[in-house]
Amino acid sequence: MKAMLLAAGFGTRLFPLTLDRPKPALPVLGRPLITYGADYLARFGCRDLVVNLHYKGEAIVAALGDGTAFGCRITYSYERDVILGTGGALDHAKALLNPTETFVVMNGKLMTTINLQSALATHRKTGALATLIVKPNVRREQFSVVDINEEGAICGFGPPPAMAAGSDEPPPLFFTGIQILEPDIFDYIPARVFSHTTTDIYPRAIADGRRVMAHLAAPDEAWYEFSTPERYLDLSCHLAGNSQAVICGSGCQIAAEAELSRSILWNQVTIGTGAKLHEVIIGDGVTIPDGMVLARVMVVRAELLRQAASAAPPSADGRGRRIGDNVIVDF
Predict the structure, then answer these.
(1) Nearest CA to 326 among 293, 296, 304?
(2) Domain 229-330, what architecture?
């Protein structure tokens, strides 16, 4: 079975960590995030993957290669001029996908234990054009709402919930970013333009009487999405098995007198004597001077900002402050 792994986004909410790599290439417990997605898809029999690229795509290629390490074959769809959105990415990669049977599309910023075979069974039983895997938004986070009817068919998509966590109302459903599609989904994808499945494609298919179904993931099936500094930090500590974890990459040096808690250090990071860090994410090659106190910030080398120039993620202008050789950006 074929699958498409989406990896073209800018990761603006994670600036400046995304100055030299896209979000799916950020390290999670020592591995690029997207490698977990490749493992997941291959484990469920997706041996032929297409990965779309736009911003800093070379970091994704370095992480995945030709797919041999994951037991699959990977080809790349280059969105060279402009980013195309999920729908546009599918249209652009159609020749590589060559869809003649059911295929899977998954966001590259995820880790999950959702049973894809169970979702495929739902898809086949209902004869759907598309099946979206959904979960209850118990914490009412800022994910768009998926509306379904009594049969589990999707009726539409709404804005993120306004109700605070703890409301007596049942939690709304949200889309996990994993979807199962039939080849004739391309009948509803506009050619050669930016489009999204949930806003541009599925509403057209539903209005045309096609079945777009929801598959509800089981409560014990984990799903992790790394799109903000808070989520990246919280989930990394959770996966490390320690809510106060200090997660270090290779070649890090931490002075004995430094105090660190709930922080992520990438590779070749040096922490000076007397430094105090709480909820700090530090990029490759950063040196934190003696005595510096930081909390709830991301730190990268200022050199990266100069190197990025016009290739920096959108919305990067004016964010952060320069301190010595580093750029520091608040959560």
Answers:
(1) 304
(2) 3 Solenoid (2.160)
- Class of the domain covering 2-225: alpha beta
Rama region for 121: left / alpha / beta (φ>0; ψ in -120 to 50; rest) = alpha
Q: Are 280 and 293 in contact (CB under 8 A)?
A: no
pLDDT in tens, 233-268: 999 999 999 999 999 999 999 999 999 999 999 999
- Output the pTM of the full model: 0.94
Name the helix (H) or strand (E) containing 263.
Answer: strand 263-265
Q: Please report, for the chain, the start and end positions of each structural domain, with discontinuous segments joined by +.
A: 2-225, 229-330
pLDDT digits (tens, 9 = 90+) for 75-119: 999 999 999 999 999 999 999 999 999 999 999 999 999 999 999
Q: At what angle do helices 33-43 and 57-64 cross, to 10 degrees?
A: 50
Distance CA 246, CA 315 (A): 29
